[in-house]
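Deviations from the work plan: none for this task. Representative record:
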Amino acid sequence: MLLAHLSPLAASLFSLLAIGSLLLAFVMLGSHWLKDYLLAFMAESWLIAILSGAVGYYGNYHELYLVAVLTAFFRGLVLPYLIWRIIARLSVERELHVTLQPSSCLVLGAFLVLFAFVVSNHLGNSLGLGGTVVVLALTVMLSMKLIGFLMLAVRQEAISQVLGLLVLENGIFLGSQILVPGMPLLIELVLLFDLLVIVVSFGVLVRYLVAHVGSTSSRELRRLVG
Amino acid sequence: MVEAWLVIVVIAPVLSAAVAGASQHGRMAEYANLVAAAVCLIASLWLVVHFDGARTFINDYVLFDALGAWTLVCTCVVYCLASIYAVGYMRLLREEEARLPGFYALFSLFAATMICGPLMNNIGVYWIAIELTTLVSTFLVGFDRGQEAIEAAWKYIIVVSAGISLALLGTVIFYWAGSLVLGPTYDMTWETLRHAAPRMSPALTQTAFLLVLVGYGTKAGLAPMHTWLPDAHSEGPAPVSAMLSGALLNTAMLGVARFLTITDAASGSLLPRTVLVAFGAFSLFVATLFIVRQQGIKRLMAYSSVEHMGVLALGLGFGGPLAIAAVLYHMLNHSLNKSLMFFGAGNVMRVYGTKDIDAIHGVWSRFPVTGALWIAGAVAITGAPPFGLFLSELALMRAGFATPNAWAVIVLLLLLIVIFIGFLNHFRTMYFDTQRPTAASVPVTSGVNVSTWMTLPMWLALLPVFVLGIWWPQELWRFFETVAADLGGGMR
């Protein structure tokens, strides 16, 4: 297994990239401008692309170079471009109704990371891999997952919710690059394609929201209850 | 031969979608979809009748096993019934005439994705198939383009995508757990994982299973992840509601069943099963609360789906050949019966021009045939004899008593009684209560005729439920035993 005998340089590079992605998730959590979310997501995707390349280099998984290029292209360029187009068409630039202040979100996010660490540490120890980059990868994967859910819960703009979902996805993708670099290439390609379809579907739905509901805030979506 | 039929069952709806999309002609799309649905039903029945052991195709990417075949039949039955019903129902929406080809293209595509799901052998590809069902059906749910419909579609895609991303996380962790045993690269099929499972880390597989359970549980409508379900089911056109409830939920349940088998093989622990049982019992509880005080007719049916998915989860959680047989029997009966209920609700909704239970009255005198079929369906769906759901629920309880989770059987029994009373009470007010002051003041949409297209599928759904209620064929028992054996005989 790759992770069992990593050179210290590789291990610290992986850690750096993973932590960087996690920090960018916090950037999204601490802002309420839609553009910030988008830029943070873009940067996060680029970091993940670099991570794919690094894992491919140090672990001798040459197909990961392809994954890296595709990740950078699709997650780093195409998806942000599609979302940017949606934002440009809307009149909304920021979250208008704050359910939870960004500062409180950050604190809550920190607690979520702690929780993720406790779970990962427990799992890592049960596998005899405590203290390795595995625990870190798991922590980042679970934290980004939880932060994505937090964003979904406290943000109301349609675009924020889409980006929240994409953060969930990014977290899984990042974790899987480190934990299971040997995952068949086909699956990764189909996942990328799937992501593209998701974003296009969201684009269409957002257009419907504007046309038929007159707002892209989920605060307006409260007719169906009970 | 099996290959040929499998190709047919997948290609038929795709072709129909292509024809519907290209034709721009409502009638043509309608008939293309109808033909495709009939072909699918015939093909799936042939596949089950001639089933002779699991096989894989295309580099192990396609798996045709007993459980998949059975889910396929349930899907195709609902697809066929809903297609017949859609002809009559969609013709009533005159203003939507121009959008009919688009509707049928999506409808067939939705069926195609649901048919593909159970056949996927690769756990990653299975996840993608399930995700695709969401994407396609979102646009069917929002087909109406009204404010409520768009709201339902938005909630549906956000809640289910978020939920199912947990299933992806679980899938990755399952793969990781396998890679610690099998080496970094291997085929992530159900079979490989199950063989490797005894050597996999129990802590890791259990964590992964819980994630997968919450993920696919969201898609299957288990409480408390069910919040998208009543909205999506009540806002989509009636044939779409039938497909969502009768077919889609099963394809997600199948994933839970298969991952449970792997988890069982990895650890002898009772925990995963107890969690599944708890989710099932909680779903029943939530459904009961909302059924009793429900005001929307289609939402009533939707909560009944939450109830029945809870029953399926209980059965899977109990495990063992009898419970598995009950679960599979319940799946088919529920598919048939819930289609019938949504068809009836669609008819009533169209004629009365409202979804509100309070505004509907005198159903029996207004249309005796549809009314009789619908109330028979209501009796059946609450688990009363002599209908199929009674037999499957009875078998399930018998199986449950023999397990450590026997408490859930008592819960199930009590809640089923409350549901029976609550559900049929709504029907009493709709059928017999003519004394209420609102009764006369509500205008009834005139000029809406319930055509044969809309009553025929109700007959076609009720008769099998009745037959299955008095006769549980011996051949089915044997088939269910095969499935139970595939699922590792349930609990050991």
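The first helix of chain A runs from residue 8 to 29.
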